[in-house]
Amino acid sequence: MTSPSSLPSESGTNPVRLTDAERERALEVLREGAALGRLSHDTFVRRMELALAARRRDELAALTADLRTEGRWSKLVLGSVGAVSGFTVKLRRAWQSERLPKLLLPAPGAYPLRIGRDPANGLRLSHDTVSRLHAELSAQGGMWVLRDLGSTNGTSVNGRRVIGAAVVQAGDQVSFGSLSFCLATA
Questions:
Q1: Domain FHA, which positions (predicted)?
Q2: What is the sign of the dihedral through the CA atoms of 105, 181, 162 and 82?
């Protein structure tokens, strides 16, 4: 058996030690390969162990050889497509928001505004996707807080479901079940 010092080196004298940056690049390629489904979990774990134990560049190269990484241009194009896609989502939300009925925020200091199908609520919404006691809108510390009251079909703000409570402001799109509104000030 040969000892590590008797292995051939890249420079001919002493083996060149891997840098942390080289090892991290290889680990990142392995993580990306696993995230994209190119590696099974077991293969990913084994290759990570081998990458952490590797002593030479060729050992790292062998671990990532079958995982082609995207080139600079591919990353640029994919990043641009992602940015345009994100912009179109914001544009669609803005377009829809202007077409939604307005829900006026109550005067600060007023009692919390209860929202739901029950006639005793401050805002009664007679729709089958709205719960009897659906949500509550209140002013707290200079901010507006929208709290879901355990509704069946959920409350959302700007397309995200409210779990518990969320801070809202004029211009936000709020939904109670399938009814949507745009918050506005008087």
A1: 113-162
A2: negative
Contact 63, 51 (CB under 8 A): yes
| List of residues 6+ apart from 116 with CB closer than 8 A | 123, 124, 125, 130, 131, 132, 133, 134, 135, 149, 151, 176
Higher pLDDT, 49 or 7: 49
Query: Which tens digits make up the pLDDT trace of 41-82?
Result: 899 899 999 999 998 888 888 998 888 666 677 777 777 877
The domain over range 98-185 is classified in CATH as 2.60.200.20? yes
The ranges assigned to domains in the chain are 17-69, 98-185
What is the spatial distance between Cα 146 and Cα 126, in angstroms, rounded to a whole number?
19
- How many residues comprise the chain? 186
